Amino acid sequence: MPQHPLRILFSAGESSGDHHAANMFLELKKYRPDIGAIGMGSTKMAQAGIDIRYDSANIGVIGVVEVIKHYPEIRRALYLMKQLVANERPDLLVCVDYKEFNFKLAKYAKQQGVKVLFYVSPQVWAWRPGRVKKYGAVIDMMAVIFPFETTYYEAENVPVRYVGHPSVDKVHPQYSKSEALQHFGLNAERPVIGLLPGSRNNEIKRMLPVMLAAAELLQAELPDIQFILPQADCITGALLENYLQHTKVKIKCVKNMPYDVIQCCNAVMTTSGTATLEVALLTIPMVIVYKLAPITYWLGRVLVKTPFIGLPNIIAGKSIVKELIQHEATAVAMAKEIKRILTDASYCDPMVKHLVDVKHTLGQGGGSKNMAILALKMLS
Q: Which CATH number fits domain 177-362: 3.40.50.300, 3.30.70.20, 3.40.50.2000, 3.40.50.720?
């Protein structure tokens, strides 16, 4: 192992990547307290002690239209990160998710003779499986977070390790369910519905109004029902209030306790994404909903080969929870699905059993620690 103090360059472009990189670096420090890190990221990475050279809060967007709007800023961020590779000569570049950006950065780093560890595989099982070879040419190791992903890389002789999904370690409520219900002022005798409208501003704008409309329909049919919303770290109270002030339904918003909130729920309406996996790990029945800009949705229909977009369904390899996408994501359809979960045990119980199976498939966790060990092996 090199005797000089090791230094890693992290590149994380979104909120989830910021968390993953931060947790990985904290684990690395346990093995090598002298290790240093710089990079692109946000609050969590800064708190972990990584020297942030570019704040990724400006570029964490999803969808073709949104990326086009932010393209000049994304290009500026890429130029800056390439400069860091060239000038700082890190011992290792760790690219966390943020696929297209990090592919370009990895390619440049490889040309500069810097080792590249890519954390969180592009969804090659969903679209463009030919990318496996392309990524193989610009990285030294792919760290995947789903067990079934290793097959795609092994088939092309690309170095790959399954490290475990980061959510397995993260999804732990602070309180018992009864304590959490009491803490949030919820009545244990009455059904609780969770609203998870997403962790990006554009998701809130698209999904929260339709979720609130569904909540109004549900309350009209089931007057005893209670609603709760775990507020994502990067979403402001002011943005939520823009929508909540116009609804007749009482929605309790809770900050910084997502898993306590979810475990209190009898059912959840959730935007597609990592949240669906977190709900699955807590084995709470759900309906997965999503709307995209029309052009992004159309491109997705053309390019994406998987029949599902919800991670629990993808992991199970079959439809275990209902997905309502684009024009199907109506208030009426969402309310109907939640009502069925609440009132039809023969429908709800098998869903819960399948969610338990998904949880077992993902194993024991330890993703951040496994990543740290993998990085140190690459550095030695």
A: 3.40.50.2000
